[in-house]
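Protocol step 6 of 9: fold each sequence in the batch and record its structure tokens directly after the sequence line. For illustration, a two-sequence batch is reproduced in full.

Sequence one:
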Amino acid sequence: MDLFEYAHQNKLKEEAPLASRIRPRTLEEFVGQTHILSKGSQLYRSIQADKLSSVIFYGPSGTGKTTLAKVIANTTSADFRQLNATVAGKKDMAEVVEQAKVTRGAYGRKTILFIDEIHRFNKAQQDYLLPFVEDGTVILIGATTENPYFEVNSALISRSMIFELKPLDKEDIRTIIQTALTDRERGMGMYHPKIDEDALEFISDFAGGDARVALNAIELAVLTTEPENGEIHITSEILEQCVQRKNVRYDKNGDNHYDTISAFIKSMRGSDPDAAIYYLAKMLYAGEDVNFIARRIMICAAEDVGCADPRALQLAVAAQQAVHVIGMPEARIILAEAVLYVAGAPKSNSAVMAIDEAMEAVRTTDIKTVPPHLQDAHYDGSGKLGHGVGYQYAHDYPEHYVKQQYLPDELLGKTFYHPGNLGYEKTMKERLDRLKNREQ
């Protein structure tokens, strides 16, 4: 590297975004992902001992995939080469492979090839790498935001270890922000910034587990805020402007959270789709866990709609499964459809009343035995004990119904289910009443 290239590289480092400048350089500086990087874990020990085999890092943006590759670059004795699959091709890989052969033959040194966005390579490009990964010419580190089992060739998958990186916890984001604000060499410490607690809480929550989002907002806030008495004061209002989103009062562990979810459920129960969709939007805007919301919709569909429209629970369950697969932002549409259906459906809490009454009967009534004709008769000798004797098979009778005793003697005549008069449950009620009153 000549003098001009050296100066150019230094200039790039100085002007790089905060998220790039503040990247951890060692495993000790790395924040989060303790499920794969705790001390003593296989990945931690492999990196520390410089004995890494081919790996694929999979997870959302801003969770540390590239950062972890850079940490490996800083700690390994191997040659470290990097390609981005969005712009690189087979020719670029061939150059790396040829140089790796030279380095290995002349100096006995390994080559680690880091390919960012590896899912962008087509099958032929991925296949090209296979023999060189297999014979150890290169050690592959792939990074992808897509599920590698769908987007990376199975042959490469079988020769690599897969490590899933998860969205960072809010506390991890807070730690990263505080480091960035105090680091004078690589961060924003030279500006002497001070951040309010509610602003730190807001941006940690807004980031959604993506450290890059948080750091970009912090950098913009520091660089665009006029200092007062030599100090830059970052408020939640400033950060709202930087991310172009209002800070909604919604502490996931506080009263506002519980008040909002309570209003959300009561609006669905009360058949007000406009209010229900508003509270859904508020929760989504504030970054509430979509799986938590989906669970509440399923509960409401069973508890408050119930037999009046059994399709409500089917739709709610389908929505929960779809949300789990798809994620935001499209998940908002799926949740909205489920909320509007549940809110608009006829209501019945008969299932709740029935199971609660039955549970109380179980708790308070001493039941001696199941009626003998209902007892299990699928074994030799059961008839001698009277088990199953006299049982009438419902399918042998008109409308597949026959009057006989099903409840234990101690509860004979007891009614637990009181069907309502709305929706499908009205049809159920009419049928049950007709069958009960029919002469046998």
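Sequence two, same batch, same settings:
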Amino acid sequence: MKDISLSLTTPSAGSPFQKAGAALTSCGILCCIIATFGFGNNYPFTFFFLIIGLFIAGGLLYSIPYFTAKNGLKNDGIMQNSLSSKGAIAWGIAILMTGFYIILYWFPSYLEGLIRTMNPLSLLLRGKSADQWFLYGTFYTLAVLIMSIRFIGKYKFSRYQVIRTISVMFFQLGFAFLLPAFLLKLNQPEFYFSYFWPLKYSYFFPNDFDYLIKSGNLGVFMVFWGLVMTFIATPILTYNFGKRWYCSWVCGCGALAETLGDPYRQNSDKSLKAWKIERWIVHSVLAFVILTTAMLWLNSWKSGTIFGNASGLLSQWYGFLIGSVFSGVIGTGFYPIMGSRVWCRFGCPMAAILGLIQRFKSKFRITTNGGQCISCGNCSTYCEMGIDVRAYAQKGENIIRASCVGCGVCSSVCPRGVLKLENLEEESRFIPYIRHENK
């Protein structure tokens, strides 16, 4: 049994620190709105420091009570809170986030003033003025870093949660934000080393492939890195560690879901109907990107004589429907309503590939000790992937599911130590009650 206190104590939402944090964050959002209406063009430095400073200060203040609170679940009242239980506040946040994504993707001119506030940082890191994607990358990274502090405070009693959260902070800040910016400053291709095909689908499209090859030795290395990570490293790592090595330790999409989306993880649909829809959609997206990539290469090989413009149109539709609408607008904007892993669960082609390997050829599983289960339901409630973990625990069955991202929160919130993440011999993965100390 875990040697931690699991009393349902939580930082009060009305604590002075959290009130101050919420107020500062609201002021940061207000500054963003003011900057959007032209003031960011005239006072970029002022608004940059105001926005970034207020968001950081607000996030840190809001997180302080989690570090000072007693170890435990810290989730009492979450189903009655309007912010976390699909209430009016949650719907308001969903509309705000969805609206921001729509404007960012298709009407960036309306954000010109806000984009200019990022010029000081963009000029420092990239040597060029900010654009809509640098604005997005900055806010995205800031959200991951700030909410990671909160997450670490909340799960400070779990070494696994602390280490993996530090890992996603490192990869998001270093590999997905600073390194691509530094490459641009050196007049090299903007390349994201922590994203691979089919998640970063365009890297294996002929035009991007040729561009990287022609950009010099570094571009050739980028292509080599992408090929190795996609076709060699990914299968090997997933066989040994399951999809958690990527989805919960490296991927920026997972990083945002685990940190910014943590207050909404309990909103994931656990029904059988949702599971059937999930399987059909996520594997359809995978088939879509495989077909698109194959058609583009065949067309390129035959100089466009096979499919004509069809392959190009297919890639454009994939970019619009999946790369923009699904992964951005729906995948993130719907956090407060559908849970934190909307994109990862229903749309990510990378998650689909990793899931197939994990389900049929991997050492990873979550072992259960059914004799200790008290059917409290915490594990199922806080599974962001919609898995009914309790049903497995009650039957003493190991959890081997393609959708499981190995976040380990189900294990962390279990008051009896029933669940354990393990990498054992593949042949024994369906045998219950095998408990080792590797987690």
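Proceed to step 7 once all outputs are recorded. Observation for sequence two: The beta strands are 364-368, 419-423.
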